Amino acid sequence: MTQRRRITLKDIAEETGLSISSVSLALRDDSRISEPVRTRIKEVAHRLGYQVDLSGAMLRSSKPKIIGIVAQLDQELHNKYVASINRYAQAAGYRTITQNASLSNGYRQSLEALSQLRINTSVAINPDFSGDELPPNLAPAVVVGQSRVAGADLVRSSNYTGLSELVLHLKSLGHAEITYLDGPQSYSSKIRRESLLRAAVEAGIKVHPIPAGNTVDDGFGAVQQLLTESWTRQKNHLDSTKLALSGITALTCYNDQVAEGAMVALYRAGFSIPGDVSVTGFDNSLGAASVAFNLTTVDRGTAKVAEHVTQLAIRRAEKQIESVEEITVESSLVVRRSTGPAFFLQN
User: Fold this and answer.
1) Is-above-0.70 flag for pTM?
2) Separation of alpha carbons 231 and 244, rounded Å
3) Is the CA virtual torsion 322, 191, 175, 336 positive or negative?
4) Which is it for strands 177-182 and 206-211: parallel, antiparallel or unpaired?
């Protein structure tokens, strides 16, 4: 099979009758080329199948306009951040290259891969390191998360504001206690749990944390364990009202994926949501907003976080920042159909 020849700037120049430099400027949206000419050149480039040679561009440029991103792409929230950062970067004339820390040996190897591509302006989303163990050439310029990395700007979303609204929402529905499916062992999980406990104390509601994780399977497994324990305690009772008799009326989850797994386990066991138990998540993912789950959750202000991250990364690339910056974006409650009055208040 014959390999197709790569289309070059020279091919576009010959097709349009313009110089290679004019074609290059037009494809970079340089204002020195008129809008009609830019449009015509882009149409020809599209028709011919022209693709930018990123590796060549990075080698030729001492300051490539590329932002590297390291994220765990098996996490839907990370995907939302990556998509939003890419959108804001493109609007500013930058490109992005993303490394999946879930597939490699973690964040360090992903950052090493970006450094080999000569990308020195990188963003790490919820990294699992403090930065002290990283050499300066690998350290990210901007971090999305709850904890600082040495020398990097930090953009965080406030767990507390959205969780406070969530707790008050559940209290208004008559829920006096909350069972919390906790996240994995990490600093982010610790901060979220502490924020929930603080909000619950202020609202006069008890919280019972239970180890779970951050995946759909983790939520499914945690609820199956709860059901097993509940049914074991009640196996000699004729009344099998299931989970409700264990005193659980509200199930709050570390993230939306855990909540989705929990809901599937409850539905399979014959429960009504929110008739028997209310379920809430965190992150306001696409799944949470779907008709299938219609999940009450906390929105982390993903778009606003991504906007700040992109601005900081570009300012770092263009050396417009002298000191480390820290920005906090407020979270907020999104009420959907997975929450309702506690079962004992229903007619």
Assistant:
1) yes
2) 11
3) positive
4) parallel
What are the pLDDT digits (tens) for 250-296?
Answer: 999 999 999 999 999 999 999 999 999 999 999 999 899 999 999 99
Tokens of 333: 């409650």
Q: Is the peptide bond before 127 cis (omega within 30 degrees of 0)?
A: no
Over the stretch 47-73, which tens digit does the pLDDT of each residue have? 888 876 655 555 455 566 889 999 998
Contact of 114 with 310, CB cutoff 8 Å: no
Do 161 and 331 meet the contact criterion of CB atoms below 8 Å apart?
Answer: yes
14 contact partners, CB below 8 Å, separation of at least 6: none
Q: What is the largest CA-CA distance in the chain?
A: 87
pLDDT band at 1 (very low <50, low <70, confident <90, very high): very low
CB atoms < 10 A from the CB of 170, how many?
24
Rounded Cα distance between 185 and 214, Å, is 10
Task: Identify the bridge partners of residue 180 per DSSP, sorted by sequence position.
Answer: 209, 252
Residue 113's pLDDT band, with cuts at 50, 70 and 90, is confident
DSSP label of 70: E
Chain centroid, CA 121 distance in Å: 20
Q: Where are the alpha helices (DSSP H) in 92-207?
A: 107-116, 159-172, 187-203
Residue 155, burial from CB neighbour count under 10 angstroms (0-12, 13-18, 19+) = buried
Q: With beta carbons less than 8 A apart as the criterion, state whether 32 and 19 touch.
A: no
